[in-house]
Design brief:
By secondary structure, this protein is α/β, with parallel strands linked by helices. Helix content is 56%, strand content 15%. The strands form 3 sheets. A 5-stranded mixed beta sheet has the order 1-2-3-4-11, covered by helices on one side. Strands 5-6-7 form a 3-stranded mixed beta sheet. Helix 1 packs across helix 5 (143-161) and helix 2 packs antiparallel against helix 5 (143-161).
Length: 386
């Protein structure tokens, strides 16, 4: 992801930290530094860094189990609002989703247990008898405060993530269990409905309790639950048809040396959403209508197609289901997918083609009011959040 730095690589998975993470560390420095000075500022930075190390381990728990059941993991991204594990695909079986979902909170439970035992070893009988394991939260910066804060952070991560509300881990556990009885589509609809009810209750609790963070969490859960349901609905419809249906007509091609004016002229005459770019008999890229329009606006009509086209295109076979191609599009950041039948190039498809297909396949034949792309999969593929 742009504006992110790789800090580690575990089992072939890049662990990246987004640049905005610096602001969170600064916030920790200010919160602890104002009442406790320079030592407090350093303590706040170290504590938040340790908490997000636990978040990274939480995501690694998801990732390692995902890999063990045949689901690839591209990267783990740490953001100020939490962590995200980017999966190559959704788990194919409910039991796999169940195992992946439980793995993250299980890591936090293990970490909390280890920290409790660590405190017992270093702080003696007072750790339990005098309640240091919870009263330490009220103390100034110290080793005790660090251990206790980290202990409760892991407890909070485990409990919060096991709320039975999509897209939290608890919601995925609920969906996995329901899928064993009703199938993924109906299970997602039920789990999303439960999530929205819980989100409404959390929102009311946040409003009456004057807790804006709780209100923000409620809004996030409410919106994300709807997106989960729409994503599964889209998968169900798109899996019924192959990509061949989108490229059955004659292929529209351009040369990399053609001008954007010529590309715009072809776009006016041809209904395709994306045009294959060939040099001789070889495909060197593809350009969408959106890329043509953007190029005309910023580069002018005399600019070349080669300046605006997408290169190194993902490849799909003509018989691949539309959903698989949709997933390729998201994983490639929206670059067009080249469709081939054996060795013959049939054309290319882009997000606009999938949007058109989805609008036709939905019951009633009309797209939903909100933009399908943002509502369907705004994060470019399956993910596991904090």
């Amino acid at each position: 992801m742009r504006w992110s730095l790789r800090v580690a690589r575990v089992r072939g998975i890049d662990i990246r930290v987004h640049a905005t993470f610096v602001f969170l560390l600064l916030l920790g420095a200010v919160q602890w530094g104002l009442p406790h000075g320079g030592l407090g500022a350093v303590f706040g930075v170290l504590l938040l860094a340790a908490v997000f190390a636990c978040v990274a381990l939480h995501e690694l728990g998801h990732s390692v189990v995902a890999q063990s059941v045949g689901v690839g993991v591209r990267e783990i991204l740490l953001l100020p609002i939490g962590g995200v594990a980017r999966l190559d695909k959704d788990p194919s079986r409910p039991v796999h989703e169940l195992l992946i979902a439980v793995a993250g909170p299980a890591v936090n439970v293990v970490l909390a247990g280890a920290l409790f035992l660590l405190g017992r070893v270093f702080f003696g009988s007072a750790w339990f008898e005098d309640g240091l394991w919870y009263s330490g939260l009220l103390l100034p910066p110290s080793a005790l405060t660090f251990v206790v804060s980290l202990l409760w952070a892991n407890i909070g991560l485990a409990v919060f993530n096991m709320l039975p509300a999509l897209p939290m881990d608890g919601g995925r556990v609920l969906r996995a269990l329901l899928s064993m009885l009703f199938g993924q589509l109906q299970a997602t609809s039920i789990a999303a409905g439960i999530a929205r009810v819980l989100a409404a209750l959390l929102g009311l609790l946040g409003v009456f309790g004057e807790n804006p963070i709780l209100v923000l969490i409620a809004v996030f859960v409410f919106i994300a639950a709807g997106r989960e349901r729409e994503a599964v609905e889209a998968k169900a419809w798109l899996s019924k048809f192959s990509v061949r249906a989108l490229v059955s007509g004659p292929t529209a091609t351009l040369e990399p040396g053609a001008t954007l004016a010529a590309a715009a002229h072809l776009a006016l005459q041809h209904p395709a959403s994306v045009f294959v770019v060939k040099l001789g008999h070889g495909v060197v890229g593809a350009i969408t209508r959106g890329q043509i329009a953007t190029g005309l606006q910023h580069r002018g009509p005399d600019a070349f197609v080669a300046e605006c086209m997408s290169r190194e295109l993902p490849i799909a076979q003509a018989e691949d289901p539309l959903f698989a191609v949709h997933l390729q599009l998201m994983q490639s950041g929206g670059r067009p997918v080249l469709v081939v039948d054996g060795t013959r190039v049939m054309g290319a498809v882009c997000m606009d083609d999938i949007a058109r297909a989805l609008s036709l396949l939905r019951p009633g034949g009309r797209p939903k009011r909100r933009k399908w792309r943002a509502a369907l999969l705004p994060n470019r593929g399956p993910e596991r959040t904090l």
